[in-house]
Amino acid sequence: MVLKESSGIRSPLNINRSSLEIIKSTKFLGAHLAENFTWSLNTSSISKRAQQHLYKLRQALGGQVVLPDDWETTAEVIRETGRKVLGVSSGRRKEDKDTWWWNEEIQDSIQRKRLAKKKWDMDRTEENRQEYKELQRRVKREVSKAKQKGI
């Protein structure tokens, strides 16, 4: 089956005589995936960091170019690389919280704090840490004031 970009209507996709529906977008693992899915710009930096970490692991294994044949060792190397490059979540569910005190000013402050956290996560310098900690304290004060006004 050939999909033509110029045609607005697409015939259904059939696999093993089962018709599949083509959807415009979906949410998968917290990320929105659109029909015209393209790799994000961040993918290349993540790939580069993974390659660097694998290189360090190879050096620790005695400079082997090929990963060991043992499945457990290979799986552990992949898991360790994933942990180092992508990080680990807490695994806890988010609880429902009241947001009656939420406003634009607080939303902007929290967004700046989140960006500072991402910057610190990517580049662990003391300057980035101090910037993140300062924004964290400022947001905490602003939220506290907003909650006090609402009571």
Automatic annotation (TrEMBL):
Q: Where is this region: Disordered?
A: 117-151
Top-rank taxon? Eukaryota
* Positions with biased composition (Basic and acidic residues): 118-145
List the protein's name: Uncharacterized protein
